[in-house]
Amino acid sequence: MASRLHAHIGTFRQLEILLAVFDGGSVKAASESLFLTQPTVSMQLKKLSEAIGMPLYQQVGRKLKFTDAGLATVNTARNILENCEQLDMHLSDLRGLKSGTLRIASVTTAKYFIPHLLGPFCQRYPGIDIQFTVANRQQIIDRLEQGLDDFYVFSHLPQGSEIEVIEFMANDLVAIASKNHRFAKQDKVSLEEFCQEDFLIREVGSGTRFATEEFFKGQPINPKVKMTIASNEAIIHSVLSNLGVSILSAHTLAFGEIYGVKIIDVTSLPIQSTWSFAWMRQTSLSPIAKVFLDYVETEGREMMARAVNV
Questions:
Q1: What's the CATH number for 98-170+274-309?
Q2: For residue 10, what are the contacts with CB-CB under 8 A and spacing of at least 6?
Q3: Domain 2-77 belongs to what topology?
Q4: Per-residue DSSP letter, 158
Q5: What is the DSSP letter of 246?
Q6: How confident is the model at residue 110, as a pLDDT?
């Protein structure tokens, strides 16, 4: 029975390759992530398709469109490989070791502090691997709904999701301008005056944009949006180039050690929010994920509090 089933679903390596193609969106992306040649990836997928007896995907222009059989195989492959990884981590835990893979997906503004949080943890448990994914808020929500990671870091939690949450650290969004801007010489700037300047805003799907738009829904005035920019760093450099003013996470400036940009004291600002760690309620955390969660709630929280207050 087991041998017949194996003949239909292929080898573990073929399933791993299939997931890499599905997640990367192309054979090229999969070959780069797995350090394989494109012909090797294509050949293994062909063998997997032959074993299943049905095509896994079709080429539509430059994109791959997975068939129903392909999508079913992707879901099964993910479950199989996750179960193997859970077994590996559980066995390692029984041996008194902490090994395996810890997966964290974070909104872009949190990418400045997560490495500082991970550093001491990885030194303590050098045997573990880290998969750290950075994307905008909507993309992280998509990953959460697919259950791709152990933890998801948000500044504004998604609504309607069955998640467990711990609040970790304050994340104030502040008004910024170039140090050469006239606002930099004022002790206080009214919100009306701030909104008269050209405003640089993050892209749709960004947590910073979400918070900014929610804030202005309760105000009698809106900012004069001049540019939409899909990067905190690009916004900062645009501010430095006197293209406008913006609202960003204060930690973007603090951990990024940005010079030439000044936080402006604007009426009704900052926008207050909190970074939180979330995980799916129905998901059983791996041994290393449980250890990391305990670290986050104790030493990690204290360490980041000291770093912010330095």
A1: 3.40.190.10
A2: 18, 47, 48, 51, 52
A3: Arc Repressor Mutant, subunit A (1.10.10)
A4: P
A5: E
A6: 87
